[in-house]
Fold each of these.
Amino acid sequence: MNRTIRTSIKALIIENENILLIKKKDDEGYYYLFPGGGQEHGETMHEALRRECLEELGCEIMIEDLTFIREYIGKNHEHAEWDQDVHQNEYMFHCHLNKDVPQIEPSNPDDDQIGTEWLPLSEIDRFRVYPQALKQWLKGDIHKAPIYLGDIN
């Protein structure tokens, strides 16, 4: 049984009313996650986020303010069957792509990553995006949302 709490750093990249997400697929179909991942020992949060975005998006990012903090305690959510021992704290930063990026091409994508996709914020409810509870804030004024979102999925 894993008793550690994982720290994950994520990027909220919004341009022209679209959000850039990592695309994956499982038995239920396509789903989307925010770019980013686990912080390694000795890395700052910004270093971890830059490394993860370089791997998953293939490009440099500019990091701005911390926008959200969310916890994910797996035993409390719909994927408890396989996530029961997962406890993760995610720190989500508003980011921008380096404007010199000709195209997004992952250099070292996650094993189950099949691509990246810009999704229109106006249609975000049509997609399976995790954490799902974040959709309500993405459709409205992000700046009115609380920073700490709690244990959500």
Note: The first strand starts at residue 6 and ends at 15.
Amino acid sequence: MGSYQSNTSKGFRLTSTWVEFEDDWFAQGASRRVYRGTYHGNPEKEGKRCVVKVYKEEWFDNIEEYAWKVDDRAYLKATEMAQLFKVHAAMYRTSIHHEIEFVKPEFTSVDTCASFRLFGFLPMNKKVKGKLPYTRDSVKNVIPSNASVLVERYLEGDYIKFTSNTGFVDPQKGALPKAFSHFTYHASGGQILVSDLQGVSNGTSYTFTDPAVLSGGTQLGFYGPTDLGKYGIVKFFQKHICNELCERLNKPTITNVTPAEKAVFDTIVNNMPDKKSSTYTYQLSQSSDVPKSEVENIQHNLKLESILEE
């Protein structure tokens, strides 16, 4: 009487690999909904599990300018810092493990959405988990046609949120991740700080996914919706307690700011959500009652100087 069609992606660029993913998302952030998926089309990956992140409609309309490029930019910067940190950590005789890698994302777009074809040719859109928890909606309303997709390999092991992008640190397992974040600020000359570190550890190495890269430049959100910029950098150092891997690493000092701007900056930082989960750029204005334009202007004008504290 009919046939079932799953959610699928188009092939990855220059490869035959594509993915099939479940009807219902299991997590979501500001820009994407996350699904469990399976690789196909590649003998080495066939049938292996993956994580499929589908960009929401408001994020894929300008794909060439924003949606997937900021995520790729964040991954590349975080990977660059991980490679430098390995060299840095090797200089110290320490019990803290220092192998770090970031999962490489692949980018493509939606090919087909879940549906039932009555008599083999009459498509009927399936009802799936809606945009909000505990709701149901047509798959076409939840997964827009040709939406952008980010695919990552599934991480085996206990998934842990080691740090957040507002200074949270897991008290038992966060020693290396927080030292790595401090190092990224130092090694980049204050240009960035990699935070929001989550993933798995096997006791000798860490594999992280979906990092937040906080920009010390003039543009808030340059590395995506979790880039809290200079506000996030200052918040990190307000809460950071250095360990042996932080020896002789620079910290930020605020310069080139008026007393009035400094007061507003402090208001924004002090009112940032203090939580384990990720915080998004739009929440800086919401939590502090400071207009979005003023939040962006202070990010543009304020300077952070990377210096070594004696």
Note: Helices lie at 57-60, 67-90, 139-142, 175-187, 229-239, 259-270, 281-288, 292-301.
Amino acid sequence: MNNYYCVMTFHSTYHALNFEKILKEFNYEVRLMPVPRQVSSSCGTAAEFQCEKKADILKICLDNHIEMDDIHRIENQKKNNWFVKLLNDKG
């Protein structure tokens, strides 16, 4: 299991939905999500994908004129997860 994941940010929700639709047509696993706090405190929609597929996904975006903002690699911070902390406090 990776200790990181990648997210792509977009200028609008429309672009995020378009990204998800096209990538799923190419059988890529994509999950829309709120933009992580590590990236921005503003609200918006991001798409999570496997970092190992970044080059292929960028090519698909270019070939299909998908507008995007940026790509970010996010480190998992499970040790700071509120649910894990709650379980540890009770144990």
Note: The chain has a mean pLDDT of 83.
